[in-house]
Amino acid sequence: MGKRQFWIAREYEKCSGCRKCEIACSLFHEKRVWPEASRIRIFMLVPGVEFPHLCVQCQDYPCVEACPVNAMSVGETAAVIVDKDACIGCGTCIDACPGKVPHLHPAENYAVVCDLCGGDPQCVKVCQEGGWKALVKVEREENVDYRKYAKSPEELTRELAFAFYGEKSEELLPC
Q1: Which residue from 49, 52, 51 is spatially nearest to 39, judged by alpha carbons?
Q2: Mean pLDDT in residue range 150-158
Q3: How far is Cα of residue 115 from the mean position of the Cα atoms in its chain?
Q4: pLDDT value at position 2?
Q5: Is the pLDDT of residue 174 over 70?
Q6: C-alpha to C-alpha distance for 124 and 15, rounded to whole angstroms
Q7: Are 57 and 81 in contact (CB under 8 A)?
Q8: Sign (positive or negative) of CA dihedral 154, 160, 161, 162
Q9: Can you give the pLDDT at residue 49?
């Protein structure tokens, strides 16, 4: 029997922008504090509008399908797994992702994307322990289209600015 499949739901209005999720992720994957190499990223394109950005594990996995060297696969938990030795750092997965989530490792030439920490996502742990609860581990459901949550940082900024500040926020938006 395989691992349960889940995803990380986001409650953006609860995010404080503390970036502890980035730190926990980089400690887990890189064994040091290195937010630029984190698989989750906090964006702030408009002051006061900070949010976590990470893979939603789309059902059709466009990033995996687009990889010309088959360096990406789908793991037991439904996470995208990158074979860093096979990845050529071409960026095709970034272009294919509707949320523009994958990014290139800052020191090595391979794509990084949330792998759900093998089933124990460190970003969720630190967010829950801190009391923010902006990130929540949720079991995947068959009838949910997760791709609808895959939005670029610019799209999310626009939606959140309108939600936080109303229609007048148009003046704040750089995008």
Answers
A1: 52
A2: 95
A3: 9
A4: 59
A5: no
A6: 12
A7: no
A8: positive
A9: 93
- What single-letter amino acid sits at 83? D
Token pair for 164: 């936080």
DSSP designation for 33: -
Residues 6+ apart with CB under 8 A from 148: none
Mean per-residue pLDDT, 139-159 = 92
Q: What string of DSSP letters covers 101-132?
A: --EE-SSSSSEE---GGGG--HHHHHHHHTT-
Q: Tell me how far apart the alpha carbons of residues 120 and 137 are, in angstroms, rounded to a whole number.
A: 9
Gap between the Cα atoms of 3 and 152, Å rounded: 29
Which token pair is 7?
């995803």
**Secondary element (H or E) of residue 163:** helix 153-165
Q: Tens digit of pLDDT for each residue in 49-71? A: 999 999 999 999 999 999 999 99
Residue 76 has which token pair? 């037991």
Structure tokens, 6: 């889940």
CB 87 within 8 Å of CB 111: yes
